[in-house]
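Much of our argument rests on the idea that a fold can be written as discrete symbols. Part of our work consisted of pairing the sequence of a single chain with a tokenised description of its backbone. No coordinates are needed to read the tokens, only the vocabulary itself. The record that follows shows the chain in one-letter code together with its fold in token form.
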Amino acid sequence: DVCARVAGGSNAGHTIVVDGIKYKFHLLPSGVLNKQAKCVIGNGVVVHIPSFLKELDGLEASGIDYKGRVFLSDRAHLVFDFH
């Protein structure tokens, strides 16, 4: 299974509740909660790197293993705090 985010940035977001646990997403596709899903952040997404890393850290703290399943397009737009 593949779940992709293809447009937008971290200003939008959504909350998913699974088994009573609340997960907040801004950049990552919510499909990351499915252990079989590969998650792609596509070339139309504006990725604020600090927010992206914080979101990954939050997943890890919640016990979600995303390693090897999150892929970032080499054509996605990257922004940093100094932009």
Remarks:
- Residues 49-61 form the longest helix (13 residues).
- DSSP finds one helix and seven strands in the chain.
- Strands lie at 2-5, 14-18, 21-25, 38-41, 46-48, 70-72, 77-79.
